[in-house]
Amino acid sequence: MAFPCPLCGAVSRVRTSRMLSAATKEIYYNCSNDDCCHQYKTLEGEPLTLAQPIKGGAQIPPERLRTLPSLAKPTPPPPLTVQPGRVQHRVLK
Ligand SMILES: [Zn+2]
Q1: Mind listing the pLDDT tens digit for each residue in 4-59?
Q2: 63-80, pLDDT tens digit by residue?
Q3: Is there a contact between 11 and 5 (Cβ–Cβ < 8 Å)?
Q4: What is the C-alpha to C-alpha distance for residues 24 and 72, in angstroms, rounded to an integer?
Q5: Where is the Zinc finger Ogr/Delta-type domain (predicted)?
Q6: How far apart are CA 48 and CA 30, in angstroms?
Q7: Would you list the domain boundaries of the chain?
Q8: How far does the centroid of ligand 1 lie from the alpha carbon of residue 82, in Å?
């Protein structure tokens, strides 16, 4: 998946992502422009139904339903990559 860097417009690549809730996903990106190297994250959520599931989804066997791992102990995101460059980065907390 590619996303334009909000600073320079170059293609960014997904570094990792994680589910924050059943309908919210946090996605971490690295800008591919060597003069920028922006690292940022986005939130994806609020899914909107475009077409109803066949028979309302009621016919899906329980063993074929996917469940999210417990959100009680969220895993921290992986450490940011450190690469030498001309741009100084500040890690958001
Ligand atoms: Zn960039």
Answers
A1: 999 999 999 999 999 999 899 999 999 999 999 999 999 999 889 898 877 766 77
A2: 877 776 665 566 666 676
A3: yes
A4: 15
A5: 5-44
A6: 27
A7: 1-46+69-93
A8: 16
Query: How far away, in angstroms, is 2 Cα from ligand 1 center?
Result: 12
Q: What gap in Å lies between CA 80 and CA 78, rounded to an integer?
A: 6
Q: Say if CB 77 and CB 91 are below 8 A apart.
A: no
pTM of the model: 0.59
| Dist. CA 35 → ligand 1 center (Å) | 8
* String of DSSP letters for 10-51: -EEEEEEEEEEETTEEEEEEEE--TTT--EEEEEEE----SS
